[in-house]
């Protein structure tokens, strides 16, 4: 099979949001901290009516319906998530109820978990399968999604919720450059979920930022090494027409574009000094000594500002409006890029992708969009993503007080049995799956609005 990649993509986010400026006032922090300091506008969240299984059911069914697919066309289904409601039964198997009427139960793949990286692992598994000897000629589907919520404190504003589903196959309009991957994995306790009775992570926020930035450096350097050996090609930020990043909050992504520029600068300082003479005295800095250097961070955010606007800003639509969707964050970035682009502006372009999951696992890889702007699959992807802004606009705004109350209900009932959720089904969008009941055997039953 040739040109394996993304054939279609769908995104689902909850219908509730809280405004970040209102949250600043509610939390008693300085005005501007969440909105300007972290670059966040609104944050999506769900009531106890939604869990990882319902989010996944909703987005998968949406992918199938909006692309006129039948369930017997799918030979592999992989789920990436860190929102665990069952230590044994996978979300993948829950999704198999959607396949029932088709009679197709021969579907490989299962869940993978490592913080925000699971979606990327699921994607790589699916791409590898289609490219391999064990491929049976059918499509693969990747579902990734999470409910990102934090206990009271400085991390709470960096939550979010949502899911993406991607159809993977040959002759795709968005082709993965499978041989070009740079990864960095290590053992670190920056963000983890050791408390099985809580949905909330244990977070060392500052450490997580250093780990993220170190991973940007390492993955970028390794991607460049691969390109040098495999393609005999020298890589710079300009090799990428667009660049999506895992987005815990938008400001970190802007800083990461600056970080890639710092990497480029240290290899070819002259190119930058001509335009920014103040960089002259930074040409000998040791990159490993700059992780907490605010001056360097600010300088390279300024130097890379135009690149950020051209290549990355548009991909932050969902990150700014919904927040961190964990495994779905990077793919929500890709969907955002499709939502704000035309086929003409993307045809023939290379899209850089940086995935980071705490703990930690990270990869930088890339897609190549087909050259032909009249490619019907590319147009279909663009058209399907076009409703994202309107869907964001039509969500229901909730006050910070009610947001906190909603989280308290989730906290109290997180692992309950004999439980019927109390959240409204009225407020859900048509087509949304929701949790109807958890019975005495902890079996979860879902209905669709
Ligand atoms: N106006 C404008 N900016 C302000 C204001 C203000 N009034 N007040 C503060 N700021 C700025 C700060 O200067 C800072 O920006 P800078 O770093 O560019 O200088 C920014 O707002 C945030 O302020 P901090 O004091 O650094 O924030 P705090 O330490 O309280 O929390 C953090 C931030 C660590 C990101 C926290 O939200 C967190 O732990 N989040 C979860 C962890 C996370 O998302 N990690 C990312 C990778 S791992 C993952 O994806 C889960």
Automatic annotation (TrEMBL):
The keyword Transferase applies. Pathway: Metabolic intermediate biosynthesis; (R)-mevalonate biosynthesis; (R)-mevalonate from acetyl-CoA: step 2/3. One of its GO terms (biological process) is sterol biosynthetic process. The active site is at residues 82, 116, 246. Gene3D superfamilies: 3.40.47.10. Residues 174-449 form the Hydroxymethylglutaryl-coenzyme A synthase C-terminal domain. It is an enzyme of class 2 (transferase). Its EC number is 2.3.3.10. It catalyses: acetoacetyl-CoA + acetyl-CoA + H2O = (3S)-3-hydroxy-3-methylglutaryl-CoA + CoA + H(+). InterPro entries: HMG_CoA_synt_C_dom (IPR013746), HMG_CoA_synth_N (IPR013528), HMG_CoA_synthase_euk (IPR010122), Thiolase-like (IPR016039). CoA binds at residues 208, 251, 255. Residues 1-173 form the Hydroxymethylglutaryl-coenzyme A synthase N-terminal domain. Keywords: Lipid biosynthesis, Lipid metabolism, Steroid biosynthesis, Steroid metabolism, Sterol biosynthesis, Sterol metabolism, Transferase. Pfam families: HMG_CoA_synt_C, HMG_CoA_synt_N. GO terms for molecular function: hydroxymethylglutaryl-CoA synthase activity. Belongs to the thiolase-like superfamily. HMG-CoA synthase family. NCBIfam families: HMG-CoA-S_euk. Catalyzes the condensation of acetyl-CoA with acetoacetyl-CoA to form HMG-CoA. This is Hydroxymethylglutaryl-CoA synthase.
């Amino acid at each position: 099979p040739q040109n394996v990649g993304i054939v279609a993509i769908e995104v689902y986010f909850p219908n509730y949001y809280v405004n970040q400026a209102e949250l600043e006032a509610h939390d008693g922090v300085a005005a501007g901290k969440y909105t300007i300091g972290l670059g966040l506008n609104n944050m999506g969240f769900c009531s106890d009516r939604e869990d990882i299984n319902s989010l996944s059911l909703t987005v998968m069914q949406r992918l199938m319906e909006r692309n006129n697919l039948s369930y017997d066309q799918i030979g592999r289904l992989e789920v990436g998530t860190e929102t665990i409601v069952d230590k044994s039964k996978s979300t993948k198997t829950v999704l198999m109820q959607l396949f029932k009427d088709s009679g197709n139960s021969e579907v490989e793949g299962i869940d993978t978990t490592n913080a925000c990286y699971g979606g990327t692992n699921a994607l790589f598994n699916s791409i590898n399968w289609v490219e391999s000897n064990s491929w049976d000629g059918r499509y693969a589907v990747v579902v990734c999604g999470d409910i990102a919520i934090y206990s009271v404190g400085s991390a709470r504003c960096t939550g979010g919720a949502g899911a993406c589903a991607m159809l993977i196959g040959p002759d795709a309009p968005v082709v993965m450059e499978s041989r070009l991957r740079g990864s960095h994995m290590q053992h670190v306790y920056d963000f983890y979920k050791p408390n099985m009775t809580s949905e909330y992570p244990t977070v060392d926020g500052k450490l997580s930022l250093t780990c993220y930035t170190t991973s940007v450096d390492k993955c970028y350097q390794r991607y460049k090494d691969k390109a040098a050996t495999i393609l005999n090609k020298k890589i710079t930020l300009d090799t990428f027409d667009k660049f999506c990043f895992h987005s815990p909050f938008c400001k970190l992504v802007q800083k990461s574009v600056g970080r890639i520029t710092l990497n480029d600068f240290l290899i070819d300082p002259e190119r930058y000094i001509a335009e920014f003479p103040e960089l002259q005295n930074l040409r000998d800095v040791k990159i490993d000594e700059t992780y907490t250097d605010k001056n360097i961070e600010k300088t390279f955010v300024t130097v890379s500002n135009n690149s950020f606007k051209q290549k990355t800003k548009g991909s932050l639509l969902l990150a700014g409006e919904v927040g961190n969707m964990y495994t779905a964050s990077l793919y929500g970035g890709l969907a955002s890029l499709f939502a704000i682009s035309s086929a003409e502006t993307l045809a023939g372009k290379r899209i850089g992708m940086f995935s980071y999951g705490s703990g930690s696992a990270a990869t930088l890889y890339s897609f190549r969009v087909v050259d032909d702007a009249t490619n019907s699959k590319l147009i279909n992807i663009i058209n399907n993503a076009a409703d994202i802004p309107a869907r964001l606009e039509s969500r229901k705004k909730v006050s910070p007080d009610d947001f906190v109350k909603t989280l308290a209900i989730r906290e109290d009932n997180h692992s309950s049995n004999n439980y019927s959720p109390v959240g409204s089904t009225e407020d859900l969008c048509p087509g949304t799956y929701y949790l109807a009941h958890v019975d005495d055997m902890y079996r979860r039953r879902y209905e669709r609005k």
